[in-house]
Design goal:
Elements (H helix, E strand, L loop, with lengths): L18 H11 L6 E2 H7 L5 H11 L8 E2 L10 H11 L3 E3 L13 E3 L1 H4 L3 H4 L2 H6 L1
Parallel strand pairs: 1-2
Antiparallel strand pairs: 3-4
């Protein structure tokens, strides 16, 4: 009788990802308290398609930490400012008032992410051991 393959056996390589799948994979890797811009995600994939990343996030992004992908000026995802703010506060993501003040926002929805402090750059922020393997 043929043996039944167990999950612990060597798995087949994953199928190649389409653009949307690759976007979701990058977003899923963004650490708590850190963010990437739509353009950062596109660049990580070798693309200049920040708007294409936005479309993927709008249509398929609910399964990943969508609040960690923001506009280039630090604005949170449009229409989701209040829900995103709850996540940012829970994760300790650095915020600033949109007026330019460096402290937490006064008006609930008048805020930006502090990109200088919160931006995640995978190749720069990876642990030294994993960079050495690359």
């Amino acid at each position: 009788m043929p043996s039944v393959r167990q999950p612990s056996d060597h798995a087949a390589p994953p199928p190649s990802l389409d653009f949307a799948g690759a976007v979701l994979l990058v977003v899923a890797e963004i650490p708590r308290g850190r963010v990437m811009t739509y353009g950062d995600v596109a660049s990580e994939l070798g693309s200049r398609g920040a708007r294409a990343v936005g479309r993927v996030m709008a249509t398929e992004g609910s399964s990943v930490p969508w609040w960690r992908v923001v506009h280039a000026d630090g604005r949170p995802p449009a229409g989701h400012e209040r829900a995103a703010l709850e996540h940012y506060r829970a994760e300790g993501t650095p915020l600033r008032a949109s007026s330019g003040a460096r402290d937490a926002p006064g008006d609930e929805l008048d805020y930006r992410l502090d990109l200088a402090a919160a931006r995640w750059v995978p190749w720069r922020d990876a642990p030294a051991a994993s960079r050495a393997r690359s």
